[in-house]
Amino acid sequence: MEKLYVIKIGGNIIDDDAKLSAFLSDFSNINGKKILVHGGGKLATRLAEKLGVEQQLVEGRRITDAETLKIVTMVYAGYINKNIVAALQGYHCNAIGLCGADGDVILAHKREHPVLDYGYVGDVDAINTVLIRSLLNQNIAIVFAPITHDQQGQLLNTNADTIAQEVAKGMSKEYDVSLVYSFEKSGVLLDANDDSTVIDRISPSYYQQLKTKQKIFAGMIPKLDNAFTALNSGVKKVIIGKAENLEQLVNGSSGTTIENE
């Protein structure tokens, strides 16, 4: 099976022009098929403040009302996405920027919750693997913004980690998929404040041990739960690590590799 890298870049790297430029240079140098999923960074929040649109966060998740949806669509699917695509073209990496509505590529539904109304937040239902494969076969790198749609004319704000996971799972029937979560930390750490305590490899049994002994930073648990969901759905391995070390993450010499026993 041909290799495919699905790489998620964290929002805090997007806020740093120099780090983002270096990351995109490294991304452009990855050989073979590749997909980039980006978050939003702080730009949407700053723009909302300037426009006087109050932002609500519940348990770290943004409530997306109608006005906020306009802002995140403009910022994520517009400004950030097209700047990334233009930068990749500058590095001679042919790329296309998409949101979920383009080519019906990511179908979602409005999140339902017994108590909270998250507004226009989407949970993914389906990935258009035929379209993705046809673009990859033309040696085009795909850059996904975290905006989806419901096929009823409604755009939805969707978590970028989730999009990366769902795209990786969807493509795993046709490719040998590695899912890479790149962000500001060096990997999964035994001590959240010490970058030198990276755990090289995590298997399901070792993960249970770490959770039982409460050796793992609480904020990392959803990422790891998602990683094992991806592995159990056909993804070959999940790598978590520092965006500045993308080349080493891809070749397995940096970060934390999560794989089944």
Structure characterization notes:
- This protein has 261 residues and is α/β, with parallel strands linked by helices.
- It has a single domain, classed as 3-Layer(aba) Sandwich (Carbamate kinase), CATH 3.40.1160.10.
- 37% of the residues lie in helices and 24% in strands.
- It has nine helices and 14 strands.
- Strands 5-8-2-1-11-13-14-12 form an eight-stranded mixed sheet, sandwiched between helices. Strands 3-4 form a two-stranded antiparallel ribbon.
- Helix 6 runs parallel beside helix 8.
- The chain starts with a strand and ends with a strand.
Would you spell out the secondary-structure blueprint of this structure?
Blueprint: E1 3-9, H1 11-14, H2 17-28, E2 33-38, H3 43-51, E3 56-58, E4 61-63, H4 66-90, E5 95-98, E6 106-110, E7 122-127, H5 129-136, E8 141-144, E9 147-149, E10 155-157, H6 160-171, E11 176-183, E12 201-202, H7 204-212, H8 221-231, E13 237-242, H9 246-251, E14 256-258
Parallel strand pairs: 1-2, 1-11, 2-8, 5-8, 11-13, 12-14
Antiparallel strand pairs: 3-4, 6-7, 9-10, 13-14
